[in-house]
Amino acid sequence: MSGIDKKLTDKESGSLTKGKKKQKKEDAWRPVGPRDPFAMLDSLPEKKQQEIQKALHLFSLGPTLPKTMQQAIRHNYRFWETQPVPRLGDNITTHGPIIAEGEGSFRKEPYSLPSDFCWDVLDLRSAPVLRELCSLLNENYMEDDDNTIRFDFSLEYIQWALQPPNCLAQWHLGVRVESNKKLVGFIAAVPADLRIYETEKRVVQVTFLCVHKKLRLKRMSPVLIQELTRRVNQQGLCQAVYTAGIVLPTPLSSCRHWHRPLNTRKLMELNYPGLRQSMNLQRALKFNRLPEVTKTRGLRPMTKQDAPGIHSLLQTSLCNFHLSPLFSLQEVEHWLLPRENVIDTYVVEGEDGMLTDVVSFYSNTFKVLNHPVHTGLRAAHLLYVASTATELVDLMEDTLVIAKAKGFDIFSALDVMDNKRFLENLKFSISDRNVHYYLYNWKCPNMSPDKVGLVLPI
């Protein structure tokens, strides 16, 4: 070896030795074994996490979730093609089950989960379990596309939504990590009686399908749906109703969200979608101004003694629609009796003591992410309204006045039932969000939104 080659070799050897020492010193601070990518994500600032999750949402989830019928027609529904639901494009003129009761044998064994996970029935009477469920839903359920607003469910709201009369614990179905018992998936069903055109059916309302963001590529949702279906079938029920913001096979009806600003200044500061962008703040404040007080005589909050009168009003009103609930007196009390920050119901009492009108709205709280001023948003959602003596527009204007006085920032309603009679008159704006109604194992002709008399709380 020449002298020059030897010097070069010694120099390279020294550099390598020095580099190894430096690397060893850096490695001393690193944890042993491969780094958990989710732990790395969690260690980042919240704003950075939101940016990454938004990108993942748009990249991995967007193409798989059709939001229009045109997208749905081109989509491959591998799971739903195996289920008893109408096919996209079918022209249905008959009424009845897709699979007759007793036609197929119901599976007796639970569906299998990957070895790292296990099923768990959630006891919603337990405050720690409720807090655990709220945490899962608040961090993973239906985040908006912009990743700026997130649900902030309360324990009281979850109890109201999931524990009506005759609810069954085995229909509050969770998935846990086997090793640490962390809750990572959930789906629920509650019993309900429906009128579907001329047929009265005992069904379940399916809601709160939620899978942890880190597990969404593991196709856990289909297994949750199948296992819940199995448990519902065990009780002799074969039909279900549910809603979704995406197009699945096949919508019974497609409705739209409408929004009415109550706290205009705050919504503009949040750049809330759906606001009239052409208006400046002063003009928007003037445009959305509401009366200071209500004007309907006899308008007051519901009491338990009002339940029979409300039951009668709703029975008369809801029979005019093709899809509507058949409430029992106990269900009227559960769904409509006022609960702080959950459900508000008002009645109009005539001079003879008879109830002539009823209106109810439930509340959702949202967490606002990465805003310098605002951290939360309160939304009121119209549930049921029935009017016989008061003009619907007047009753709903009073409802907006009440909601604003209670501190709500925005009031939302679907264009179902007779709601179109007041939406434009009271300056609601149509949003770009759809709500599609679905029936499981039942076929019947499609219906327009004004023939839908059912509202499923989110």
Automatic annotation (TrEMBL):
Domain of life: Eukaryota
Organism the protein comes from: Parambassis ranga (Indian glassy fish)
Function description: Adds a myristoyl group to the N-terminal glycine residue of certain cellular proteins.
Subcellular locations according to the entry: Cytoplasm, Cytosol; Membrane
Family: Belongs to the NMT family.
Gene: LOC114452318
Stored SUPFAM superfamilies: Acyl-CoA N-acyltransferases (Nat)
Domain (Glycylpeptide N-tetradecanoyltransferase C-terminal): residue spans on this chain: 269-451
Protein name (database record): Glycylpeptide N-tetradecanoyltransferase
